[in-house]
Amino acid sequence: RFKATTWILVAALAAVAAYFFFIDERSRTTEERSRRERTKLFLYEKKDVTGFTLINPQGERIEVEREGEGWNIVFPVAALGDAQMIESFVGQVVPGRLGSVIAEPKSLSDYGLSAPFATFIVRRGNAAAPDTLFVGDKTPTSSNSYVRIGEAGPVLISSDITHKVMNKNLFHLRDKNFLSIEASSIDSLAITSGARAMRLRRDGVHWWFADRHVRADRLKIEPYLDAAAKAIIYEFVREDADTLAPYGLASPSKRIALVRGGEATSISLGSKKGDKVHAVRSGLDKVVLLDGRLLEACD
Fold it and tell me: Buried-most residue among 160, 217, 241, 255 (CB within 10 A)?
């Protein structure tokens, strides 16, 4: 009977200890969650952001909207956004970390907030109103920035919202892929250079000259197609194709046509600018600068 009573008491003591441990742990978890919430600039996550407006240090206003898994730039031009870059940018700003609060600032100009370095306006679905983040000067001893949420908010210090993060322009945020296709999907290739023309076609793993039964050098063709398929736009020279003569594109002598499943993409190559070349393509009414090595096929 003594042993039975002892084990009952041990079990009861263990149950009481477990109960108080559970209560204490839950209390600590709640406190930790509350502490994390108090150190956030925004009380939501980047996945909740459906759009934003950035006014950068150059005064450029850029408006971006989420569409499905991607992002679109809607102002100052209508263009695809660079989804990876924008996701990273939004994630650096939202929710953001709060370092400390300056309770009674004497003057906003002392913190660079009377004329902010940058302004970020964030929108969330059906939220009643967007939140506006003003970014001021850097703190004297670090890269942290003075910030303010809304016209009436206190002056805050944030380690996440730095001048480097906010110094984005339209080129940074827009999609810079010239084609966004797979080189392996290209069935045929046509090259025109002045009066000379050449057409190549893929047959299985080999490439052939289309007008005669002569095999072409796939070790030259496929690396070129891979470079063309992955071509990056280095500069958007014009947002339209209304004026082409200054870029050697009014009557271009060098043209490349890529065919995939019967669908052709025509690329015109114009004058060079340093090691880059001016270009336009079908389906993209813009003059852009590409890597000048794309001219090699026309030599």
Answer: 160
Q: How far apart are CA 172 and CA 164, in angstroms?
A: 12
Contacts of 95 (CB under 8 A, 6+ apart): 40, 41, 42, 43, 44, 45, 46
Look up the pTM and report it.
0.81
> CA-CA distance, 158 to 118, in Å (whole number)?
14
Chain length of the chain: 299
For 61-77, write each residue's pLDDT tens digit: 999 999 999 999 999 99
- Estimate the share of the chain in helix, then strand, then coil, as percent rounded to the nearest 5: 30, 35, 35
C-alpha angle 99-102-106 in degrees, rounded to nearest 5: 150
Tell me the CB-side half-sphere exposure of residue 276, using CA atoms within 13 A.
15
> Tokens standing for 187?
């069935």
Q: Report the first-to-last Cα separation within the chain, whole angstroms.
A: 102
The whole-number average pLDDT for the span 194-221 is 93
Indicate the DSSP class of residue 153.
P
